[in-house]
Amino acid sequence: TDTLGHAWALDWMERARAAVSAERIALIDLDRAIGDGDHGENMDRGFTAVTAKLATQAPGSPGEVLKTAATTLMSTVGGAAGPLYGTAFLRASKAAGDAVDGDGVVALLDAAVEGIQARGKAEPGEKTMVDAWVPAARAAREAAADGPVAALRAAAEAAATGAAETEPMVATKGRASYLGQRSAGHRDPGAQSTALLLQAAAEAAEA
Ligand code: ADP
Ligand code: MG
Ligand code: MG
């Protein structure tokens, strides 16, 4: 596949909904360990709303799909993650436009990272979703010449590794930072949900 269109983006959102729903308890458990235990609920509510909203529309481009996702996540997820994911998808929607090739995947992920960092001010190593998104964007860049499917597969794998690598980190941003050293030894819930979302994006591209 040389480019991904609106069908990919719709399938991505459906797979994201299914993944977040299946992992709802696991995300709750992660957030219970170093936060307030609502991340699984927040994400499940958000992506259920996204697919419900998309079912009432006939979006003709990936940009339109991701824009609906952004505004819906912004108004339904709440907490820290709602505005962060909302901004990520809004920036990604502008980068995605009408079709996404290998470089388009890089542009989409770079835009998402920029949005998350503009809003949350976290750098890599602070034990947040940034630790999944930043390596994902880097991996996509390295694979971009092989096309969008390869770029998304590389991004998904890097995000999963990045999420796992948050386990020993001490949180210095977000609610987990209140725990200081006691945040070490637990995976960051937002990094884990990011890995789920990018895995869904890759699976939709491979389907
Ligand atoms: P809340 O902490 O308000 O309950 P959630 O539980 O939905 O919100 O989301 C928590 C996740 O948000 C964290 O695991 C982390 O990945 C992410 N997060 C929190 N603050 C920031 C930040 N400043 N920058 C990036 N990500 C952040
Ligand atoms: Mg929480
Ligand atoms: Mg909360």
UniProtKB/TrEMBL annotation:
Keywords: Kinase, Transferase. Residues 7-203 form the DhaL domain. This is Dihydroxyacetone kinase subunit DhaL. The lineage of its organism: Bacteria, Bacillati, Actinomycetota, Actinomycetes, Micrococcales. It comes from the Bacteria. It comes from Georgenia deserti. InterPro entries: DhaK_L_YcgS (IPR012737), DhaL_dom (IPR004007), DhaL_dom_sf (IPR036117), Dihydroxyacetone_Kinase (IPR050861). Its EC number is 2.7.1.121. PROSITE patterns: DHAL. The keyword Magnesium does not apply.
